[in-house]
Amino acid sequence: MHSLIKYWIKFVILATGLALFSHSVHATNVIVHPTVQLDNLSPSNLRRIFTMRNRQWQKDLPIRVFVFASDNKIHSNFCLQTLEVFPYQLDKIWGKLLFSGLGEPPQVVNSQEEMIEKVRSTPGAIGYVDKIVNSEGLLIMTIGNNDE
Amino acid sequence: MMNNLIKIGLFVTLFVSTPIYASDWAVHGFAAQGVAKAKNSNFINSKGNTSLDLTDIGINVSYQYLPNLRFAGQAVYLNGGNRYEEGTRIDYMLADWTVFSDLNSQFNLYLGRYKNQHWLYSSTRDVPHTRPSIILPQSVYYDAFRDIALGSDGVALSYTRTQSNGELEFLWSYGRTSISKNASKLLISDFSKGKVSQDFVHQLTLNYSLGNGGLQFGLSLVDSDFKYEKNMNEPYFDAKAVLQRVMFNVLYNSHKWQFSSELFQERFDIDGFLSPESTQDRKGQGFYLQGRYFLDEKITLLARYDRFDNDKNDRKGNKFSKSTGGLIPPYFGYAYDTTIGLTYKINNNWQLQAEYHWIEGRARLSPAVVPDLVVNNDKNWNMWALQLMYWF
User: Fold this and answer.
1) What number is the ipTM of this complex?
2) Which of A145, B96, B336, B342 is the most exposed place for a label (fewest CB within 10 A)?
């Protein structure tokens, strides 16, 4: 009886997880401008960057964040899988920063081509794309598995 | 007249604008107009009629001067009827210096007119699309106290740091707010002719968010001194007051739900005013519990219970009423507000919000000290509000 309950609990957790993330097949790629001298970031580092709590890669190199609009599918996949936050949380944090004087929200781009173009041409830029056809002039960031 | 001109000017500017990113400059704004009615109450207007006094307009500019130094300012026009003073004002105007920043921590110093960042919704309570409801829970976000609780001129700092299992945020600020004559009237009485001024407000907050920020909790402290300078032609006297608040907050985010709560005790100690020797020292308490349900990408539902007791040793206001010789009814000693609301996000720049409040008790109305007894003649009252909002 006890093991049956355990089995069902496991099943429900797994099914919920699948239902939540079933629309996502693969993870998005985090891309940065070559001036960024790092090749790995943890999810918590990324969260700090995309919630605009971390403004500089190093002295004199500001972080320039590019995103898609909050109703974009690539954006919601990136939020849920890579940042592990809900898109509405980011909207709320950005709105609060912007309208209380503490910071600027990320710049919104409209297409993957524009995203790649902006990241390629902006020192200190960071963004994300679904797929990369030509990675010339970009660095692809690996994301650490844990927050350490 | 002047206000109307500024209002029209702001409106025109807003609707011909889109976000401007001229490399280091950025311009953003918002505009919202609503309609509201608080029946049998002077919360919005003195007759309790349907009112269009629900306008919030703002425009802000920021300039990144150096990688670690930026300047930002925002001007707003607000009209909330009787809730707070109508007019244009500088909402914030500050220099923001990033003292240090690395991948795991950042330390910022702010100088100038800063916003109150210490409570869950304090920093953007006038920015319609960022707030959960049009009228915020009055226990914590008392509108008559808005100008004082919104921000101050002084110095503030923030420090955030990633820990192994979450993130720590420390906020501190010290400053003062100038209080206009009209705002003094809202606080005290339509008949008061003197002036309220704030000596200082000192605030400190510690927030901790676990893991990915799904669960966050915090502790916040306020300490502030005020004085009242009487006018020669009024029956009141000079006074000194101390206001101190201890507050806890919890915020939980999930895929479909968001829960938030703030719980506080507030000490209000006033010497003088009614007579040179009169003294009053009471502790009020309040909290709200709020749940939001994200039905889909466009619709959010809200349910909230908000409670405020003016004196924790006199929760039904009986002693308070007796102390006024029965002139002020006991129901001015508390307020319980049950709210339901709906937010409809039309697109990334437009949103419509609607809500209904069932309220028992008349605390948290203005004027706070000498209330309007004519309209507020029953302990129960209702209110609804609808607002269309735009931002860029």
Assistant:
1) 0.87
2) A145
| Domain assignments of chain A as residue spans, ordered by start | 26-143
CA-CA distance, B285 to B272, in Å (whole number)?
23
**Token duo for residue B366:** 């203005």
Q: Kindly list the residues from chain A whose CB atom is less than 8 angstroms away from the CB atom of residue B294.
A: 88
Residue B13 predicted with pLDDT over 70:
no
Which fold is adopted by the domain B2-391?
Answer: Porin (2.40.160)
Residue B57 pLDDT > 60, yes or no?
A: yes
Q: Which of B130, B160, B171, B257 to mutate to test the interface with A (most CBs of A within 10 A)?
A: B130
pTM, two decimals, is 0.87
Asked if B107 and B100 touch (Cβ cutoff 8 Å), the reply is yes
The 3-state DSSP class for residue A18 equals helix
The SS3 assignment for A34 reads coil
Q: CA-CA distance, A35 to A21, in Å (whole number)?
A: 34
B11, B32 Cβ separation under 8 angstroms: no
Rounded to 5°, angle at Cα B338 from B337 and B341: 120
Q: Which residues contact B342 (CB under 8 A, 6 or more apart)?
A: B299, B300, B301, B302, B353, B354, B355
pLDDT, tens digit, 9 for 90 and up, residues B139-155: 999 998 887 788 899 99
Contact assignment for A56 to B101 by CB distance below 8 Å: yes
Q: Which CATH superfamily is domain A26-143 in?
A: Periplasmic binding protein-like II (3.40.190.10)
Residue with tokens 């705002």: B183
How many other CB atoms sit within 10 Å of the CB of residue B292?
20
* Beta-carbon-side half-sphere exposure of residue B289 (alpha carbons within 13 Å): 1
Peptide bond into B367 cis (omega under 30): yes
| CB proximity A56 to B under 8 Å | yes
Convert B166-184 into a string of H (helix), E (strand) and C (coil): EEEEEEEEEEECCCCHHHH
Q: Taking the mean position of all CA atoms in its chain, how far away is CA B33?
A: 18
Minimal CA separation from B73 to chain A, in Å: 7
CB contact under 8 Å between B98 and A55, yes or no, is yes
The chain A residue lying nearest B104, using CA atoms, is: A45
Question: Which tokens sit at B96?
Answer: 């923001």
Least CB–CB distance from B255: residue in A20, A51, A104: A20
CB B349 within 8 A of CB B334: no
Across the interface, whether the CB atoms of B101 and A47 are under 8 A apart is answered no
A8 inside 8 A of chain B by CB: no
| Cα–Cα nearest to B151, from B183, B188, B119, B107 | B119
CA–CA separation, A86 and A94 (whole Å): 13
Residue B380 CA from chain centroid, whole number: 23
> What's the mean pLDDT in A87-108?
94
Cα-trace Rg, chain A:
17
DSSP β-bridge partners for residue B305:
B289, B338
